[in-house]
Amino acid sequence: MDLDALRFGTFSELGEAVTDWNTMTKNLATLKTDAKDNLQAKATKARWSGENALVTREFIDKTAGEFADAYTQAHTIARSLSDTMDELVGYRDQLNSVIHEAAAKNLTVRDTGEGSFTVTMNIHPDRAAEGTTVPEHTQGDVDHVRDHVQGILRKATTSDTSAAETLRLLVDQAEYGFSGADYADRDSAAKAVAEAEKIAKILEKDPHDVTLTELNQLNTSLSTYKNDPLFAEKFATRVGPDRVLKFYAGIADPYQSFGTDPRQFEQAKLLQKNLGITLGTATLSDSDAMKSWERGMVKLGPEDLGIDDANSPRGFAVMSTLMRFGDYDDQFLNAYGEKLLAYDKEHNVKPLNPWINNGNQGDLNFYSKNDRGRDPVTGFLEALGHNPGASTDFFSQPDGAGKTVDKESEVNDHLTYLTKDRVWLPDAYAMGGDDKVIAGHDALGHALEAATTGWSYDADPMAGKDPLVPGGLDRRTAETAAVMEQVAFLYGGEDGPKMLHEQSQLADSLGKMGAAYIDDIDYSLSGVGEHQMDDGAYPAKYPGRANFTNEGATNFLSVLGQNETSHAVVTTAQHLYTLSALDANPATSAANIDNAHDALTTGAEARGILDHSRVQQAEVTYKDESEEKNKSLGRSGDWVKLGAGVVVGGGIAAIPLPGSTAAALVVAPMAADTVGDAVNTFIGQEVDKSIDKAEDDYIEKAQMTSGEFYTRGVNQLGTAYSDYVERNPKIGNSNDFDDWSQEIKSAYTTGSIQDDQRGRAPFK
To answer: Which residues pair with 656 in a beta bridge?
Structure first.
């Protein structure tokens, strides 16, 4: 900064800007509050119907979010400008004070341009007027003034340039709309940018020369700032895509071998996660610098990195390993995935896999014994599993597809390739891994969960948000439904049983997807063929609901029922939805009574399809081994245990699968936003011990014949019906209920043993 610019600066324009931004911030705070407390709150409480229930509420939520982001950005800018002005005014006053003190010692400070200045004698004693005493000074006084002025100008320059950089980074974060980046003050933002510059220098070193201390320092900074948008962008652009790939490969590979320092191994493992999250945060910026970085990373994908580490992997292998963690920009992930699959389709042919082969011993992934990280498609699919928007886009239905998916041409090419055509191989570590597990299938399931549900596959929808907000947790859209229709078509098709059997790692994911759309599946079953579907019992919960067709829903359920895991998941979701429909339709009107009846009968049919499929598959799988078959049915009959940990709110149920981890949560729709007696009874009931007879390990010891299995299914339906009648005692004498018992049993039978031609045959 030039001396005169600071010395004579009035900063009036900057002061006006601060005033304007403070005023803007106050106005936006009012709008933000109005949008949240009035607009959004009233929309949430309103009893919407028709398109308003589906479209308007979502629009209002997004609008309220934009007001919040606008306030956040304006507030951050106002604080940055105010802090900068206060600092510059302070530095100006310090400078003038130093210059005044220098004049008292006959020294003057002059601006010589471009940030330079001189400290010289003001009046030479020989030229002083007669009788004038000129103050004396020493060279030390000159040096002191020079150093003091220099220090003030240096700090003022830092204040000015750091403010300019942070403001530029901030406003470039969002090309449209507003950035949600929030900083308490200018120094916080400047500190984040400075820290990014500092640790980026570590990546300039040969990774083999990086000390454990430096690696720890790198991880500490990345862990602290990995979600900071300005830090992440500055770090990524400072390092560049090529260097970040080579550095990680060099750090990861040497420490995979047996017997190395465990501290180095742990630091390398932390680096994979911290670096992945940081790069993901960086891609969320819309700045030109980050767009260039993203293009560079995609270009590096098919290229050999030309290094000695990790068998000199291609860019895809390293970046896919890192992107397993973090929230990445949707457009970047789709551009990356398009190029990755194009390369993979061309090179992944029998008999030689380009990624998993004896010549490639480059281990890059630290987080699974069954996944060494050699196959970049696996890592990319894990990234999609954490980025629902990108995953939905990547598997979107082709343009021109019909209202229902009923032919291969209406299925996304990526989805067809990954589920039916691609060569998948196990990628397990020799020590501790299971070479029967194909990690890529599990990752594909995760990606499809995200694409169809709108949730990251391992998210907990009840965490960090009030679960009682009506309709706030169902993230399905017409776009997610279009992906789900394709999944149901593929796995409900003729090859579905074979695909499920050969891709067994997808069973839990397919079950979770089926559970997430159980209302739409029931809706497709509720009509007579494709006619007279029941909108009353199964109202649309989002615009553009999935349409599976009656036959398609039957086929898909029959495949899901073949597997113990998917059968349990979907059966639990089905039962909960039926109970919630009974809660939502008390017998206070003819319409409600009709809805309750249809929920029971259609639910019974869906349950019958699932149960019949489970029995048939057990009989085929175990053939004459009746004890093993009965154990299998016993395990399947014990799905009610899943209900013990269910949490309901916001229009969904979160069902924990065995293991009780976030990744095991099933998100299933409910007929009502609030919980009623029927659902509460199921969630709170004591688990039925009739199957396991209180034995220590019911998984191994529970047994049940086919007849007992079907009988229990009917009894559970009968309990739901009986509870409904008991809660509505006035309807017991109504003629409307005379035929309900038989109709429920008939519906269950229709779904099961009455017609062995319905659905898909068991896998043999």
So the answer is: 665
Q: Distance of CA 80 to CAs 86, 258, 745, Å?
A: 10, 51, 69
Q: Which residues, at least 6 apart from 168, have a Cβ–Cβ distance to it below 8 Å?
A: none
Q: Tokens 């086919």 map to which residue?
A: 706
Pairing of strands 116-121, 652-656: unpaired
Cβ-contact 67, 32 below 8 angstroms = yes
Contacts of 64 (CB under 8 A, 6+ apart): 32, 35, 36, 39, 40
Show the 3-state SS of 129-170: CCCCCCCCCCHHHHHHHHHHHHHHHHHHHHHHHHHHHHHHHH
Tokens standing for 728?
């509505």
How far is 676 from 611, CA to CA, in rounded Å? 26
Q: Walk along the chain (764 residues) in steps of 10 and give the mean pLDDT of each run.
A: 78 75 72 61 50 54 60 69 78 85 81 82 61 69 85 82 73 57 65 92 94 95 93 95 96 66 89 97 89 96 93 95 96 97 91 87 91 96 96 92 84 97 91 90 97 93 61 85 97 96 94 97 87 86 92 96 94 95 91 92 94 92 83 85 83 79 78 85 61 40 78 89 84 67 86 63 89
Residue 630 host element (H or E): helix 626-637
With contact defined as beta carbons under 8 Å apart, do 18 and 85 qualify?
Answer: yes
Distances 604 to 488, 539, 577, 747 between C-alpha atoms, Å: 20, 18, 12, 6
| Rounded-to-integer distance, Cα 504 and Cα 439, Å | 11
Residue in the structure block whose two tokens are 């220090």 = 151
Q: For residue 194, count CB atoms less than 10 angstroms from its CB and return exposed for 0-12, middle for 13-18, buried for 19 or more.
A: middle
Yes or no: say if 452 and 484 are a contact pair by the CB < 8 Å rule.
yes
Backbone angles phi and psi of 117, in degrees to 5: -160, 170
* Tokens linked to 394: 């990547």
Q: DSSP assignment, residue 473?
A: S
Of 497, 492, 485, 496, residue with least CA distance to 556: 492
Residue closest to 68 by CA, chosen among 180, 176, 175:
180
Give me the phi and psi of 90, to 5 degrees please. -65, -45
Task: Please list, in sequence order, all residues whose beta carbon lies within 8 angstroms of the beta carbon of residue 124, skipping any fewer than 6 positions away.
Answer: 134
For 536, what's the count of Cα atoms within 13 Å in the CB-facing half-sphere?
14
Query: Residue 732's pLDDT is what?
Result: 57
CB crowding 423-445: b at 16 or more within 10 Å, else e: ebbbbbbeeebeeebbbbbbbbb
pTM of the model: 0.80
Q: Which residues contact 270 (CB under 8 A, 6 or more apart)?
A: 219, 223
Condensed to tens digits (0 to 9), the pLDDT of residues 415-467 reads: 999 999 999 999 998 788 898 999 999 999 999 999 999 999 998 888 755 54
Distance between CA atoms of residues 147 and 157, nearest Å? 15
DSSP string, 444-464: HHHHHHHHHHSS-TT--TTTT
Task: Output DSSP code: residue 404.
Answer: S
Radius of gyration of the chain (CA): 33
3-class state of residue 540 by DSSP: coil
Pick from 559, 570, 404: which is nearest to 493 by CA? 559
CB 751 within 8 Å of CB 606: yes
Please count the CA atoms within 13 angstroms of the CA of 651 that sit on its side-chain side.
17
DSSP letter, residue 546: -
State the Cα–Cα distance between residues 40 and 56, nearest whole angstrom: 11
| Secondary structure of residue 2 in the 3-state scheme | coil
